[in-house]
Amino acid sequence: RQALSRVPNLTVLAIACDPLGRFEKIFWKFRSCCKDGRNPRPGKPCHRSLSELLEDRRALALVEEDWAVGEHLLDLLRLFGRRAKLVHQELLRVAPRQALQDLARHLGI
């Protein structure tokens, strides 16, 4: 990021997802158990439901590692300033024309 921030006229587009949606995705991708109860990731916590995961403080600490993006986004905005554009992923789904027009305006095209 720091090297890229020195490239003149470079614009960064960052697509941000909904935090709860990200949490659910992390659960299904990394923390859920197989139907037969086997752990798909040996040595890592395995939970059968989101509520079970939320009750396991040790596992939640691991999820936080996968979930922490706020600092990265702030760093990106600090480094690139007005050359950075943050877009909420949901806007691309519900109002794609508006989102793309806004991006084009930001890029000056």
Question: Would you give an account of this structure?
Answer:
The protein has 7 helices and 2 strands; from the N terminus they run αβααααβαα. The radius of gyration is 18 Å and the shape is elongated. The chain has a two-stranded parallel ribbon. With 109 residues, the protein is mostly helical. Helices cover 57% and strands 9% of the residues.
Keywords:
109 residues; mainly alpha; two-stranded parallel ribbon; 7 helices
Task: Compile the SSE list and pairings.
Elements: H1 2-5, E1 12-16, H2 19-31, H3 50-54, H4 57-67, H5 70-80, E2 84-88, H6 89-94, H7 96-107
Parallel strand pairs: 1-2
Summarize the structure.
The chain is mainly alpha-helical. Helices cover 57% and strands 9% of the residues. The mean pLDDT is 80.
